[in-house]
Design brief:
alpha+beta; 26% helix
Length: 180
């Protein structure tokens, strides 16, 4: 578990922090293309500027929830990855060396690396699971990015996805240096 400055575990809504959840709406995002690509470095995932975005740290675990579903994609968890850098103000993100083509005109953007999993976990599977049935993304569907999971929710979701938490191979700084 990553501890913030001061050594105290992070808490969200009074609960222990386990992982972030970012949502994609198929009506607004080309989720079919994202899934077909198998995941990718995402420059410019919108997050609300609030206390949660200030809790986000590099190497935090992030899950992708596709909301609403589409004709080809059911609603649920489809990818897992890492937060590359703390969220940036949209203008700063557009100027970063990673770029931010999808950056909004205002607000914050987070840079993520996501990998699509072989065993996505549907909304129905989450609703039927005793650990995941009460996760925020189900209880408060309209909440903005980021949502979160407790450590128990994170561990259960990883088990259902039949995957382990990703690990960083190189740091963001060294990745940028290699591509410059």
């Amino acid at each position: 578990m990553t501890l913030p400055p001061g050594g105290e575990p992070r808490r969200v809504n009074g609960q222990p922090f386990g992982a972030w959840v970012v949502k994609a709406n198929p009506a607004l995002s080309d989720v079919d293309a994202l899934l077909a690509a198998g995941g990718t470095d995402i420059a410019g995932w919108c997050v609300q500027q609030n206390y949660r975005s200030h809790l986000m740290r590099p190497d935090d675990l992030v899950f992708l929830w596709i909301s609403g579903g589409s004709r080809t994609v059911v609603s649920g968890f489809w990818a897992v990855g890492l937060l590359e850098d703390p969220p940036l103000v949209a203008d700063e993100a557009a100027e970063s060396t990673r770029g931010a083509a999808a950056a909004p005109k205002a607000g914050l953007v987070a840079q993520l690396t996501l990998a699509v999993v072989e065993s996505p976990v549907s909304r129905a599977a989450c609703q039927a699971d005793p650990v995941l049935a009460e996760i925020e993304v189900l209880r408060v569907a309209q909440i903005g990015n980021p949502s979160f999971l407790t450590p128990e929710g994170r561990d259960r979701l990883l088990a259902l996805m039949q995957t382990s938490a990703p690990r960083r191979i190189t740091s963001s700084a060294s990745s940028r240096a290699e591509t410059s």
